[in-house]
Amino acid sequence: MKLFVGLGNPGKEYVGTRHNMGYEVIDRFAEMAGGVFDKTGFKGIYGIIKNPAFKEPIIICKPETFMNLSGECVKPLADYFKIDVSDIVIVYDEMALPEGQIRLREGGSSGGHKGIANIIQLFGTEKIKRIRVGIGEPPHHNPIDYVLSKPNAESFAKIDAAIADAAKALRDIEIKSFEYAMSIYNGKKG
Length: 190
Fold this sequence. Notes:
Number of domains: 1
Largest sheet: 7 strands, mixed
CATH topology: Rossmann fold
Number of strands: 7
Structural class: alpha/beta
Number of helices: 6
Shape: globular
CATH architecture: 3-Layer(aba) Sandwich
CATH class: Alpha Beta
Helix content: 25-40%
């Protein structure tokens, strides 16, 4: 069993903001794979996808803890379902990547992203697979306002393409492998 987690903030005021790219990707993947978020618990909403195209069931999850405490959902959920950290993929927004690009990594530091930092802290390892969705650098010096804002039409078109690629990458991780998905999507320009 695998666990695919999209990071974001709950609430209508955050829908469509740059910081909710993880939610957007996991929603797109659920739509593609025939999954629904029909369960609540572990401080989040989740569902289990049993698609015949996949090798195993996949839990899809959106933590509702707010971004900075994402691990408070992910860790108990993984523990309950006995999912090894090597079978978890976290999807989140990344300012260090241009709009429209995604980057898959098998581990590493949080790069200052508080959501993945909390997950790393609670699992006690940086070896957590992730897909980072590029939202670009803020044009001003206030990253909080930037990540909590909605992209304009031009930016949205680029980001939407990255959301589609990230959802396909999740599919390819399950059908093929994480390494295969890295080889396809890490070189792709947005």
